[in-house]
Design a protein that fits this description.
By secondary structure, the chain is an alpha+beta fold. The chain has two domains: 3-188, Coagulation Factor XIII, Chain A, domain 1, CATH 2.70.50; 191-233. Helices cover 19% and strands 26% of the residues. It has helices at 2-14, 202-232; strands spanning 20-23, 57-60, 64-69, 78-87, 101-102, 107-110, 121-126, 139-147, 153-163, 185-188. Strands 2, 4, 5, 6, 8, 9 and 10 form a seven-stranded mixed sheet that branches. Strands 1-3-7 form a three-stranded antiparallel sheet, with no helix packed on it. The protein is globular, with a radius of gyration of 26 Å. Bound molecules: 2-acetamido-2-deoxy-beta-D-glucopyranose (7 copies). The site of one 2-acetamido-2-deoxy-beta-D-glucopyranose has 7 residues, from strand 7.
Length: 233
């Protein structure tokens, strides 16, 4: 298990790879740059260019662990991470209709370097999206999004089938397949409201004053030019 992971990482480094979902699995290797994906496959919404798979992995109906390696991406020491769920198989490629159901609040990762790094992050108990109800046997897809500092995002998915939390089908979660390595820091994200929707725009009226002022200055300047022209004529 561990050696196969290391091999994945070695080949990943060759193509300046991005994110890898290490638990509970992923759709497959999309760390590919070729003629079809000249910018790299993993930038493609919703699942990094990978179609829905049928070799689904199992995940608890009560939510469970997700582990990933966010650092296989050159040039970005920090990134925002989103984890979403898409329900069912009614979508365009027999996957979900959409991936619009957040499972965690987005957070920032603080990597050690701008170069690729192998660190792993483990979210041991990711809940289902708010108000979601699922039963054993339902199919869904977990989407991991890594938003780079320039605003483009990398996508990885894993197709799951829900099982009861005590199901023997579940792969055991342990310190080898789900751990936080010390090279990745974490930051919470906050927003600060500068102007709520619908508020009177005082800033604009200030700008209008400034604009009126410079317009007056322009008028004051005109006659000088005209005077100059008159002198020239
Ligand atoms: C499904 O099969 C693909 C191709 O063999 C493999 O890369 C991927 O890891 C498998 N996914 C799971 C969840 O086992
Ligand atoms: C690029 O790689 C993808 C994924 O392996 C593959 O489906 C596609 O056919 C490849 N394109 C070319 C031009 O080789
Ligand atoms: C879930 O996915 C599996 C594998 O693709 C499929 O065999 C099964 O019919 C699906 N179940 C439902 C309820 O759609
Ligand atoms: C997303 O997909 C679900 C089905 O999984 C559907 O009920 C919902 O309306 C969709 N939402 C959007 C915004 O398309
Ligand atoms: C890893 O770090 C995240 C973010 O701080 C935290 O939520 C999670 O519980 C940690 N995982 C483990 C296994 O301690
Ligand atoms: C969850 O359900 C409650 C009650 O129906 C509703 O008020 C709330 O808006 C829902 N939340 C989301 C995120 O859909
Ligand atoms: C906007 O201007 C009005 C009237 O001058 C004032 O009462 C209000 O406090 C101002 N709002 C802000 C956010 O500055």
């Amino acid at each position: 298990m561990l050696s196969s992971l290391i091999i994945t990482l070695a080949s990943a480094a060759l193509v300046s790879a991005h994110t890898i979902i290490t638990y509970p699995g992923w759709r497959g290797n999309n760390l590919i740059m070729n003629e079809s994906f000249p910018y790299g496959m993993q930038w493609m919404y919703p699942c990094g260019g990978m179609r829905t798979t049928t070799n689904r992995t199992y995940w608890p109906t009560t939510g469970g662990a997700i582990a990933f390696q966010p650092g296989w991406f050159q040039g970005h020491a920090t990134a925002f991470i989103y984890v979403n769920l898409g329900f069912g198989t009614d979508g365009p490629d027999h996957g979900p209709m959409n991936m619009s159901n957040p499972m965690v609040s987005p957070f920032q990762i603080l990597g050690p370097t701008k170069n690729p790094y192998p660190g792993t992050m483990c979210l041991p108990q990711v809940p289902l999206p708010v108000n979601a109800t699922v039963k054993a046997g339902d199919n869904a897809t977990i989407q991991l999004v890594e938003l780079a500092v320039h605003g483009a995002a990398l996508y990885s998915c894993v197709d799951i089938t829900f099982v009861e939390p005590d199901s023997p089908l579940l792969e055991e979660v342990n310190e080898e397949n789900c751990f936080n390595s010390t090279d990745i820091g974490v930051a919470d994200l906050y927003t600060l409201t500068v102007r709520p929707s619908g508020q009177t725009l005082n800033a604009t009226s200030n700008a209008q004053h400034r604009f009126a002022g410079s317009f007056a200055g322009y008028l004051g300047w005109m006659p000088l030019v005209l005077g100059g022209l008159w002198v020239l004529l």
